[in-house]
Design a protein that fits this description.
By secondary structure, the protein is α+β, with helices and mostly antiparallel strands. Helix content is 48%, strand content 15%. The longest helix has 37 residues, at 235-271.
Length: 383
């Protein structure tokens, strides 16, 4: 038994069984339909929240159960078997809502957190702009203080949950003249329907087809100053602090996808015959499967080590960056081979390996590109 496995309790097992049943009933039968529609239905969020699957880590006073991070791991692992990447609940539960809980005011927590747990409020975070991705300090969106309000102007792009969201946390410059520039960034919560806040077109991606990624525009968008999340000018530091868990979540998603891709491919090669025998018995294919299985196992071992540290509250910036970099790259190596071993069927949309293949590509790009991960790792080495 691994150190991580020793952390599991009967409650974790019951949670896994419950969420597995939910996915089998409410998600898996509709994945193809959602992929064609380009979005998951808004109602799935509410049904998911009704079962207590959203933000279970929140304290009871805010609608959660005080669950540990293993519940996040379990939820993502079970979701991977549905082959649905459009239902971006980990983004909401484990990446965005923590900003409100960790840095929000008591009033903000009372106002929004319970809705986040029930699914009545779906969240998004708007960092990336047409001219600013990895270089967050270069964002141009501004939030100018005007009495008891902020007036926001700017554009955002590649915003996940961009169409369905009820609340978006916007990274904006409250002090455009700050030196260094990143000290002028603040986070401001903007509710859907606010005048001057416009959800733009849904972006047509090569993968994550049912995940609503959109553009956003803010044109003289006036929001109450009370919507400032945390302190003015501290936004960049909040982002850096929370990106650790975001990258851990991404690593979990990649690891689960790699394991599912390998499982599907082993099953396929054992039943697909060529020259009178299953192709899994050809030495080249069996050796390549053995290599992939080794990489997947190494990824799992490293991820579990990282999760133990994270559960214990350790600062794991370097380790999280390593996991996000290596496991995302490993996923793309593995799934490419998996498609190859499916032959022509691997290129067919009706086979889930095709979806895993196209959905995997973005994992080395968002939440910090592989190149940015290497930069962070190198800095941690005191080179």
């Amino acid at each position: 038994m691994s150190v991580l496995e020793s952390r599991y309790t009967e409650e974790h097992t019951l949670f896994r069984e419950s969420i597995r049943r939910f996915f089998a009933r409410e998600v898996t039968p509709f994945v193809d339909e959602w992929e064609k529609a380009g979005v998951v239905p808004r109602e799935i969020w509410s049904r998911f929240g009704e079962q207590g699957f959203l933000c279970p880590w929140l304290p009871e006073q805010y609608g959660g159960t005080g669950a540990d991070f293993l519940y996040t791991l379990i939820a993502i692992e079970e979701a991977s078997r549905t082959h649905c990447t459009g239902f971006a609940f980990p983004l909401h539960s484990d990446i965005i809502v923590p900003y409100l809980y960790n840095f929000g005011s008591p009033e903000q927590k009372q106002r929004w957190l319970k809705g986040c747990a029930t699914g009545d409020i779906v969240t998004a975070i708007a960092m990336t702009e047409p001219g600013a991705g990895s270089d967050l300090a270069a964002i141009r969106t501004t939030a100018v203080k005007d009495g008891d309000s902020y007036i926001i102007n700017g554009q955002k792009t590649f915003i996940s949950n961009g169409l369905l969201c009820d609340l978006v946390i916007v990274a904006a410059k409250t002090d455009p003249k700050a030196d260094p520039p990143y000290t002028g960034i603040s986070l401001i919560a903007v509710e859907a329907g606010t005048k001057g806040f416009e959800k733009g077109r849904k972006l047509d991606k090569i993968g994550l087809k049912s995940q609503d990624t959109a553009e956003m525009a803010f044109v003289d968008c006036r929001v109450p100053a009370a919507n400032l999340v945390g302190q003015e000018g501290h936004g960049f530091f909040y982002l850096m602090e929370e990106l650790q868990q975001e990258r851990i979540v991404c690593a979990i998603i990649c690891q689960a996808a790699a394991e599912e891709a390998l499982r599907l491919t082993i099953d396929f090669t054992k039943t697909r015959e060529a020259f009178g025998r299953p192709i899994s018995r050809f030495q080249y294919i069996s050796f390549e499967l053995a290599k992939m299985a080794t990489e997947v196992e190494v990824g799992r071992a490293f991820l579990e080590s990282l999760l133990v540290d994270h559960l214990d509250g350790a600062k794991v910036v370097k380790k999280a960056s390593m996991a996000k970099y290596w496991i995302a790259e490993m996923l793309n190596r593995v799934v490419g081979k998996c498609v190859q071993f499916h032959g022509g069927y691997g290129y067919m949309e009706e086979y889930p390996i095709a979806r895993i293949f196209r959905d995997a590509r973005v994992q080395t790009i968002y939440a910090g590109t592989s190149e940015i991960m290497l930069l962070i790792i190198s800095r941690c080495l005191d080179l």
